[in-house]
Amino acid sequence: MALSLQSQTLALFIIFFATCLSFCKAKAITPHHKHFASHNYRDALTKSILFFEGQRSGKLPSSQRIKWRRDSGLSDGSAMHVDLVGGYYDAGDNVKFGFPMAFTTTMLSWSVIEFGGLMKSELQNAKEAVKWGSDYLLKATAHPGTIYVQVGDANKDHSCWERPEDMDTPRSVFKIDKNSPGSDVAAETAAALASASLVFRKSDPSYSKLLLRRAIGVFAFADKYRGAYSNGLKSYVCPFYCSYSGYQDELLWGAAWLHKATRNPSYLRYIQVNGQTLGADESDNTFGWDNKHVGARILLSKAFLVQKVQSLHDYKGHADNFICSLIPGTPFSQAQYTPGGLLYKMDDSNMQYVTSSSFLLLTYAKYLTSAHGVVSCGGTSISPKRLRSIAKKQVDYLLGTNPLKMAYMVGYGPRYPKRIHHRGSSLPSVASHPSKIQCSSGFSYMQSQSPNPNVLIGAVIGGPDSHDRFPDQRSDYEQSEPATYINAPLVGSLAYLAHSFGQL
């Protein structure tokens, strides 16, 4: 019996609906769906912040979550009759280096400033990580005209392999002042204090004001008494944290942060007058603890893009040049990548450049989106979406999407480094071995092939070589050592990715 026209129409509609439903379901499970996540970014975010608790020096609070660590360095500063208890050990040793600690604090703050609104339950932990650094920097700058920039003799510390809780190497204190200046470490400290003041502006206004007042004074000191801190302190800070890029980049960076924190036009004038001489160098595309050129360009480009400060127009071009240098196939591409796709800048602690560059890509993408802008690479326009895609690929590699299927974050995923170059992690904890482990006795643990007894959760290490190889050897500090300044920018990137894939 022939179907009526009405029945035929109904049958066709049912077939169309069923086909559409099947197609939509198929689309929903393809990897290109916007909510397909390569990794558990939320878990990685939690761990990236937790790492900082494993690096704490000083009196640990009752809220301390990494339980195998105990109090350490409780008399730091006493040699100079100052209180320098607290702060962070920068990496796998027991020295407190002020230069990378200040940069770490700045980058943790910038992570919270840009992406803290997305962090949900992790925001408080991130702010506590900032405060552990900023509290120490307030102590280090408590005496006007003096900044304490290091606690511990690095050469003697490196001749021992001992837990921070057992330290018996000299806790020598090193400082800069007008007679032995250090514009680099001073201006970075000013940047850290200014950026931290923005983190606490709403939640703790009085603390925020204290940080900002100190930042203003410290920057004035950095600018008035110019010089590299590794000139006067060379035998103590080199080759560990020598200032290789000079101090001009830190002065520009510090001024940029003070401009952002104060909105005082004098900092804008300072940038306009000094910008070129302080290294608005378009050819320098490195960003890390020593070199702030690119970070300053990106930060200042926001003032042009979003706040329409026309006098900072050039920084948009400088920022574009950096971005173009990272993008394969563009006329200005300079970056090297491993066969597995990891940005590769240098053999020693390469992952710091991966995390800092990824953060800048995501942050610049945010600024461009606000301004409806794009990156101009010669005749090619690059969208913010492309920048986010490149950053995500780098973070995914770090988390295990790589030829070895290994995460370079300790404690994340099924496979990660087990023998990291880190004293506290590699030696038995105080709880399991209460008696002191002497300076040279610890080397038997360092040379052991056994996995580290204490898992330093969230630590991101130096990473693989230029051919994606990683031996997981404790003695290989270039590839196996974690550092606070590797993790700090990653915190912001992971917050963005966790949010964008609906994990927060």
UniProtKB/TrEMBL annotation:
GO terms for molecular function: cellulase activity. It comes from the Eukaryota. Residues 41-493 form the Glycoside hydrolase family domain. Keywords: Carbohydrate metabolism, Cellulose degradation, Glycosidase, Hydrolase, Polysaccharide degradation, Signal. SUPFAM superfamilies: Six-hairpin glycosidases (SSF48208). GO terms for biological process: cellulose catabolic process. InterPro entries: 6-hairpin_glycosidase_sf (IPR008928), 6hp_glycosidase-like_sf (IPR012341), Glyco_hydro_9 (IPR001701), Glyco_hydro_9_Asp/Glu_AS (IPR033126). It catalyses: Endohydrolysis of (1->4)-beta-D-glucosidic linkages in cellulose, lichenin and cereal beta-D-glucans. The active site is at 472, 481. PROSITE patterns: GH9_3. Its EC number is 3.2.1.4. Residues 1-26 form the signal peptide. It holds the Pfam family Glyco_hydro_9. Belongs to the glycosyl hydrolase 9 (cellulase E) family. This is Endoglucanase. It comes from Stephania cephalantha. The lineage of its organism: Eukaryota, Viridiplantae, Streptophyta, Embryophyta, Tracheophyta.
